Amino acid sequence: MANNKVVKLSLYINYFVFAILLNSVGIVILKSQNVYGVDELQASTLELFKDMPIALVSFLIASFLPRIGYKRAMLAALGLVTFACIYMYYGNSFNSAKVLFACVGASFALIKVSVYSVIGLVTANEKEHNSLMSSIEGVFMFGIALAYFLFPAFNNEDIPGSWLRVYWLLAALSILSFLFLYYAKFDRDYEIPGANLKEDLMEMFKLFVKVLVLVFVFSAFLFVMIEQGIMTWLPTFNDRVLNLPENISIMMASILAIALGIGRLAAGQLVKKYSWITVLSACIIAAMAMFIFVLPKTVEASVGAINSISDIPLIAYAFPLVGLFIAPIYPLLNSVVLSALPQKLHSSMTGLIVIFSALGGSLGSRIIGYLFKTVGASSAFYYILIPLGILLACIYILKKLTIKAHVAT
Fold first, then answer.
1. CATH placement of domain 4-408
2. Average pLDDT, the chain
């Protein structure tokens, strides 16, 4: 397949842009509390406005997206978020933020289904699929990390609306990504799932009868609930528990995103030498150890006057490093299940991945938001140990089911 490198680069750029937009929700949740005067539960609804359009659009279009065309879908997504960024700047309200994330969520559904489907077209085997999936997800996390520096760069706490200027930059990045994709040669032959739109949609529903798919979507749901719960509320954790200034609270949250990016890029190399089940088992156990041994020391840390990042005690840097260990879980789970299915079902399966990821992210943010309000910011993150333990059991069930799926094909 010619021109694979150009297509892969296009996937990286699009995913990077959406990483900044999509995962700025944690920052906007903090700003909404401080600028628009909403409480924790109200602020957490932004996650809902982001995730529900992702789930809805994925359900409606994923199965027949190959008929629309992956390139057209991604171009439409980039155009919509350009409009949303400009609208957020002029709207400057909590309701404008809801509209922004609804547009970003709907657009990301188109981007993610397209990217995941195209990965299967430009890779030759399971290990190559695992590696590219992990690498693209790693770049996604570095986009998130950049968001934690972009927003503070524009934010002046003495001028409430100053942070909104970042949306002009994000609109410009979306336009650049649009132009790069528009001029990229994207001639790809792929199989349509069914004979018509009705059959396309039925192919997605048929996936639900596969035990492999059921266990996988539950695992993906659990993981995104964990990751999004931590990522969304880490700026607030830094602000409330460590008593860091607002800008520093946001920038410190970038450590988690950077750790996730490094972890996913490292996983892309590790799976070339070790089995995915070995990598994931070690990562989940290490992540649980971080919650048991490192989080309590972070909560109990004595933090004095903070004027810059250099004033923060070292222990405050430790907990976000949990990202190194949870990072490989999501891309490897996705790659494992997609590799076990025929190429023509990848778009439908990706639709299910996006739907349950969105539901997991929304629920995770709501649960942590509820815990922040009821048990306190210093105790909320401990409850993540429960889904981590369940996830560890799920990956072994998934391993047995994928072996059966490969034997069957």
1. 1.20.1250.20
2. 81
